């Protein structure tokens, strides 16, 4: 008991080997019959969704369709009333808490960018780097050559190499969004959840973001929630339409846009 | 090797270099001008001034401790003099035990105030305090343990911002009331005083005061370098991240509570050391040191000097206290208004304090 208290005070925590998802069946995320109710309102209604390894998937749907709730369930923020959620073949997401899920390899980018404004771009990435984050380790931590290389590689990926020594607070809105994606990448996630990445971006920034997200897919799976249909068209190979807490349609962007049910939901009311 | 280590600590920070240079200069000049220059010479520094400077430097160390948690981690402590006073009391207990039979009542074991209260034996927590190493351990342990328990409860419950500031005020106020009670065994109202010697050196002698001044300079320099190491390490970047976006720091996997707790405990220990150096130079410690107003004054020093710079806090402590020494003698009724006005002015006009102003001027001129 005391040993555990001291451990926790020292920030050591009880750290098991980080779990890695088993994607031998080529599916990285299984959501099956997920139901979430808030005071009788069904935010998710027996939702079924499968994400393939390396896939870039767009999720669209009108307000209140359950997009954010779905993200909350995957990242452990909300517990569903029923259903199951698996990360790969072996990791039961519903049995885990938020930090454990993040450590297992699911990264989430929120809509509003929050970067550490008084730190440089480089330092932001350094802070986000995967690894032992207990106070004593961090007090004496030094960047290894390998870690430095990793940071430089991510800087390159998000296109902020020239801004590396700038305060993150002075970046443009779009650059902050990319930096935040970079911070997610430093945690080396297998599945990236990205919530409305291009809201408030200029057309050029939107284009850059599309390129970035497309380049990320392949090595890892990316799930993007977005309202901007032009943006979705520019990146998506497969689109899922949510409506009233379950999947209304799924397929290529053209299939989905010509789907009668989808047209009704978006235009009918 | 050694110089490169110090260079790395200072990391192109000019203010820190100047600060350490000034300390070194003071460590050489002040003893020299006090001991080697004859009295009556215009260059002679009287012992009174040496002690006064020593006091300012103790305050500077306390201000650095406050700046470490406030400037870098956003924890506005309005109760840091509680830790300062606890360190001071630990030192005071040692000094009381050194008096021995030279007290008014001549009791070899019991300090005068206990004889006066008709106590027959030493309370348990006074045992062993006649040993210097144990007393020095208590100087850091007493504030450290209190800070640990307090921080453990407060940070785990995620008490932040103004609420945390208010409970730190309550903490120091409660300790003040407790120490005022005779039953506590710390001399009540009068506190601990009438000290004779420290490690066998007579506290009435000027040379002892010079030695204490030097000890304070060394403690301040080491404390400053330790803080500098912390804020320049990745730990320092984490606590700044906590200050700017606490939940975000938590989200990327930092145990924010642990970081705050250890920083807080370290800061409290520094404050304790400052208090321990303060007491033999001033010659008394009483519950008045716990007064909430004192803690607020420390925050004013840090704000005036410029928070988040460490040396700015030290500068603020020395300047404000010099002004206090001057004004309380010249215009005693004005002092409190001056202090209040200073805080308002600095907050409105100099949010980065004197250091911020100097940086701005340098930027404009270059």
From TrEMBL, chain A:
Organism: Solimonas marina
Gene: urtD
Example GO molecular function: ATP hydrolysis activity
GO cellular component: plasma membrane
Transmembrane segments: none
Classification via PANTHER family: CONSERVED COMPONENT OF ABC TRANSPORTER FOR NATURAL AMINO ACIDS-RELATED, HIGH-AFFINITY BRANCHED-CHAIN AMINO ACID TRANSPORT ATP-BINDING PROTEIN
Annotated ABC transporter domain residues: 29-269
PROSITE patterns for this protein: ABC_TRANSPORTER_2
InterPro entries: ABC_AA/LPS_Transport, ABC_transporter-like_ATP-bd, ABC_transptr_urea_ATP-bd_UrtD, BCA_ABC_TP_C, P-loop_NTPase
CDD domains: ABC_Mj1267_LivG_branched
Signal sequence interval, chain numbering: none
Name by which UniProt lists this protein: Urea ABC transporter ATP-binding protein UrtD
Domain of life according to the entry: Bacteria
Protein keywords: ATP-binding, Nucleotide-binding, Transport
UniProtKB/TrEMBL annotation, chain B:
GO CC terms, sorted: plasma membrane
Signal peptide positions (record): none
Taxonomic superkingdom: Bacteria
Keywords: Cell membrane, Membrane, Transmembrane, Transmembrane helix
Subcellular location: Cell inner membrane
Molecular function terms, GO-annotated: branched-chain amino acid transmembrane transporter activity
One Pfam family per UniProt: BPD_transp_2
Membrane topology value: Multi-pass membrane protein
Record-annotated membrane-spanning stretches: 18-37, 49-72, 78-96, 134-155, 161-180, 210-231, 261-279, 299-322, 334-358
PANTHER family for the chain: HIGH-AFFINITY BRANCHED-CHAIN AMINO ACID TRANSPORT SYSTEM PERMEASE, SLR1201 PROTEIN
Protein name: Urea ABC transporter permease subunit UrtC
């Amino acid at each position: 008991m005391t040993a555990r208290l001291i451990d926790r005070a020292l920030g050591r925590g009880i750290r098991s080997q980080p779990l890695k998802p088993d994607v031998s069946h080529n599916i990285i995320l299984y959501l099956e019959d997920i139901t979430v109710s808030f005071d009788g309102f069904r935010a998710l209604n027996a939702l079924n969704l499968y994400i393939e390894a390396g896939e870039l998937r767009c999720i669209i749907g009108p307000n209140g369709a359950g997009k954010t709730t779905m993200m909350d369930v995957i990242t452990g923020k909300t517990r569903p009333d029923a259903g199951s959620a698996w990360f790969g073949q072996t990791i039961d997401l519903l049995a885990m808490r938020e930090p454990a899920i993040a450590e297992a390899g699911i990264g989430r980018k929120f809509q509003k960018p929050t970067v550490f404004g008084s730190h440089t771009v480089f330092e932001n990435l350094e802070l986000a780097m995967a690894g032992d984050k207990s106070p004593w380790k961090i007090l004496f931590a030094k960047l290894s050559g390998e870690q430095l290389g990793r940071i430089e590689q991510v800087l390159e990926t998000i296109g902020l190499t020239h801004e590396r020594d700038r305060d993150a607070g002075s970046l443009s809105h779009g650059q902050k969004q990319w930096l935040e994606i970079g911070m997610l990448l430093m945690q080396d996630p297998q599945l990236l959840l990205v919530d409305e990445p291009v809201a408030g971006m200029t057309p050029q920034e939107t284009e850059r973001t599309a390129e970035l997200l497309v380049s990320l897919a392949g090595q890892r799976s990316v799930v993007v929630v977005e309202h901007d249909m032009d943006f979705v068209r520019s990146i998506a190979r497969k689109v899922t339409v949510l409506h009233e807490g379950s999947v209304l349609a799924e397929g290529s962007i053209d299939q989905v846009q010509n789907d009668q049910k989808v047209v009704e939901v978006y235009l009918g009311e | 090797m050694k110089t490169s280590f110090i260079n790395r600590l200072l990391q192109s920070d000019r203010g820190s270099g100047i600060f350490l240079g000034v300390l070194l200069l003071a460590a050489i000049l002040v003893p020299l001008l006090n001991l080697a220059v004859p009295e009556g010479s215009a260059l002679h520094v009287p012992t009174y001034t040496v002690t006064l400077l020593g006091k300012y430097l103790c305050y500077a160390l306390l201000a650095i401790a406050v700046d470490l948690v406030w400037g870098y981690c956003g924890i506005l402590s309005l109760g840091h003099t509680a830790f300062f006073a606890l360190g001071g009391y630990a030192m005071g207990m040692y000094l009381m035990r050194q008096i021995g039979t030279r007290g008014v009542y001549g009791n070899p074991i019991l300090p005068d105030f206990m004889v006066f209260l008709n106590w027959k034996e030493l309370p348990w927590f006074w045992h062993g305090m006649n040993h210097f190493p144990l007393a020095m351990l208590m100087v850091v342990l007493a504030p450290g343990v209190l800070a640990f328990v307090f921080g453990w409860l407060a940070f785990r419950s995620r008490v932040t911002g103004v609420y945390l500031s208010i409970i730190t005020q309550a903490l120091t106020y409660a300790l003040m009331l407790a120490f005022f009670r005779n039953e506590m065994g710390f001399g009540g109202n009068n506190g601990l005083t009438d000290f004779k010697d420290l490690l066998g050196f007579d506290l009435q002698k000027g040379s002892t005061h010079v030695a204490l001044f030097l000890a304070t300079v060394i403690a301040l320099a080491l404390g400053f370098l330790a803080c500098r190491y912390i804020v320049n390490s990745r730990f320092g970047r984490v606590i700044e991240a906590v200050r700017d976006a606490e939940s975000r720091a938590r989200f990327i996997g930092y145990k924010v509570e642990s970081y705050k707790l250890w920083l807080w405990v370290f800061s409290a220990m520094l404050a304790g050391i400052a208090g321990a150096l303060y007491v033999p130079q001033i010659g008394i410690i009483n519950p008045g040191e716990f007064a909430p107003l004192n803690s607020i004054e420390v925050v004013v020093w840090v704000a005036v000097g410029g928070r988040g710079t460490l040396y700015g806090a030290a500068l603020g402590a020395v300047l404000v206290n010099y002004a206090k020494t001057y004004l309380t003698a010249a215009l005693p009724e004005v002092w409190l208004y001056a202090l209040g006005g200073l805080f308002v002015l600095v907050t409105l006009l100099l949010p980065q304090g004197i250091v911020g102003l100097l940086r701005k001027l340098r930027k404009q001129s270059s």
